[in-house]
Amino acid sequence: MMKLHASGEDYLEAILVLHKKMGTVRSVDVARHMEVSKPSVCHAVATLRKGGFLLMDEDHFLHLTDLGREVAEATYEKHRFFTDRLIEAGVDPETAERDACRIEHVISEETFERLKVAYKLNEKAVISSDES
Fold first, then answer.
1. Cβ-proximal residues to 59 (8 Å cutoff; 6+ apart), any chain
2. What is the pTM of this model?
3. Pick from 49, 41, 39: which is nearest to 4 by CA?
């Protein structure tokens, strides 16, 4: 399997988010959403298609493959998790979004899984101490 760069993960995540929001996604939607040029999107789409992450139908709509969806969902989950934790910690939402976007690409799977577990355990502890 081809190793994806952070930007590739960002494109897949954007396509997933747009798909949830609009149902169908074209390159121009991705360019607008990510605030990048159309040629940048075209280059990324070509690379992601070659890697088996993305399909484009005859009407130029973009579709994630199972592999692409898996990567996009994982990236999006990390993005939401870190955005929410940073906002809870008092970081302003715009900065939280930006930082979460960086963190989601550099954190290992193991660390992320352990953080999620620790957060859930901590959340349960807080809830049970509130009830006593």
1. none
2. 0.85
3. 49
